[in-house]
Design brief:
With 96 residues, the protein is α+β, with helices and mostly antiparallel strands. The chain has a domain of 65 residues. Helices cover 17% and strands 30% of the residues. It contains 1 helix and 5 strands; from the N terminus they run αβββββ. The strands form 2 sheets. Strands 1-2-3 form a 3-stranded antiparallel β-sheet, with no helix packed on it. It has a two-stranded antiparallel sheet with strand order 4-5. A hairpin with a 2-residue loop joins β4 and β5. The N and C termini lie far apart (53 Å).
Length: 96
């Protein structure tokens, strides 16, 4: 009985320690525009060979989709969370 309980606690600890998949299993966009009607604010994306975040911005003319902005061009506020991640916006644009 004690053996079974210790195995259950061990499995539970492993489940909580495992990292969550990026973007909660939504696709990781590649390119200037994030996936329309799928990507959410602060999702991880790739643009011009570097990682970035999907944020609202008109800089890439993505229409209604979020824009993938490289991490180097983001200003983030670690004290404000959006979808569980620090709130980031393109540097020079309002919203942070």
């Amino acid at each position: 009985m004690k053996f079974t309980i210790s195995i259950l606690f061990s499995l539970a600890a492993l489940a909580f320690a495992a990292p969550a998949p990026q973007n909660a299993n939504r696709p990781v966009p590649n390119g200037a525009c994030c996936t329309p009607n799928t990507s959410l604010k602060q999702d991880v994306c790739n643009v011009n060979g570097s990682t970035g975040r999907c944020v609202p911005s008109g800089s890439a003319n993505c229409g209604g989709a979020l824009t993938c902005v490289a991490d180097a061009q983001l200003t983030c506020n670690p004290n404000v969370l959006e979808r569980g991640r620090p709130l980031c916006r393109k540097t020079g644009e309002q919203g942070v």
